[in-house]
Design goal:
The structure is a single chain. With about 280 residues, this protein is α+β, with helices and mostly antiparallel strands. The protein has two domains: about 35-185, Heat Shock Protein 90, CATH 3.30.565.40; about 185-280, Heat-shock cognate protein, ATPase (Actin, Chain A, domain 4), CATH 3.90.640.20. It contains six helices and nine strands, in the order αββαααββββαβββα. A six-stranded mixed beta sheet has the order 1-2-3-4-5-6, covered by helices on one side. The chain has a three-stranded antiparallel beta sheet with strand order 7-8-9. A hairpin with a 3-residue loop joins strand 3 and strand 4 (about 150-160). The longest helix is centred in the N-terminal third of the chain and has 23 residues, at about 1-25.
Length: about 280
């Protein structure tokens, strides 16, 4: 009876350990992340006059950032990555998230209001009519796309209108190895010499997406040239695919918008580094 009881306890403990290990999928550290957001919606007047009929910039900022993660040092590093990729300037690294948003908004306001002298010049040039191209729009936001114990992928979306025929939009991705707290590039995932075979795999997936039999037929769909379609390091990862985005004018005209293409990990096994995060955590047999 005593032997049977000890054996039952051993089986129970073994089961608990196995469940815990499977839940982490090989991650050595706890990677729970709590997030918060700072949201700003503001009309910034071009002129000092308080008149809503005069030009202004319509600004929307939504910054999601980590507030709880592992320990204070790890959290500081993760916040640094988020702020650097969102604001695009290392000068924001040492600021708190709220300070960074305030500084970003102030710098945008200063740049916009510095155009006021040009506004008066243009108004005089067109004989007192309202120069319509001084109404600006700016939106900047980020969103989490994928997260597990080892990987965090997110997007930063930026759009603006500053006069002219149309505005602009771009999306950029960041992938964070949560174990080492570093951002990932193609060189962290693929073997040397990956560029040409990965290019071919991307083109094949675009052919499938646009339902064309040969690569050159993509030109009939609006793409500039086949030579433009290359790995651009603007990707995000999930449990099954690597997802690339090509922003406006990168490989196709503005009217086609952002071009998205996904390549399954099963198609990449011949060019993946054995120690890459994809091989370690997503291609386990």
């Amino acid at each position: 009876m005593q032997i049977k009881t000890k054996f039952s306890i051993f089986i129970l403990l073994t089961g608990i350990i196995l469940i815990s290990c499977n839940g982490r999928r090989g991650g050595a550290k706890s990677s729970r992340i709590d997030f918060d957001s700072i949201v700003v919606a503001r009309h910034i007047p071009l002129l000092q006059e308080n008149d809503t009929t005069l030009p202004y910039a319509d600004v929307d900022i939504s910054f999601t950032y980590p507030v709880k993660f592992r320990d204070s040092e790890s959290l500081a590093r993760l916040q640094q990555i988020f702020q650097g990729t969102f604001f695009g300037d290392s000068n924001y690294d040492a600021l708190t998230p709220q300070e960074a948003v305030d500084q970003y908004l102030k710098e945008y306001t200063d740049r916009y209001q510095s155009l006021s002298n040009y506004y008066y010049e243009d108004k005089a040039r067109i004989e007192g009519k309202m120069p319509s191209w001084y109404w600006y729009i700016m939106n900047n936001s980020n969103k989490i796309l994928f997260q597990n114990d080892s990987l965090l992928s997110y997007a930063v979306e930026y759009s603006d209108y500053e006069g002219g025929a149309h505005g602009s939009y771009r999306i950029t991705y960041t992938n964070v190895d949560l174990n080492d707290l570093v951002t990932l590039t193609e060189e962290d995932l693929f073997v040397p010499g990956y560029f040409k075979p990965l290019t071919e795999k991307i083109v094949v997936q675009l052919m499938k997406k646009y339902d064309v039999p040969v690569a050159d037929s993509l030109l009939m769909k609006g793409f500039f040239t086949i030579e433009d379609i290359v790995p651009n390091n603007n990707f995000w990862l999930d449990g099954k695919n690597i997802h690339y985005s090509y922003n406006q004018y990168e490989i196709a005209p503005y009217a086609m918008g952002v071009i998205d293409v996904s390549v399954p990990y099963s198609e990449l096994s011949d060019i993946l580094l054995p120690e890459s995060i994809i091989s370690r955590y997503f291609l386990k047999k």
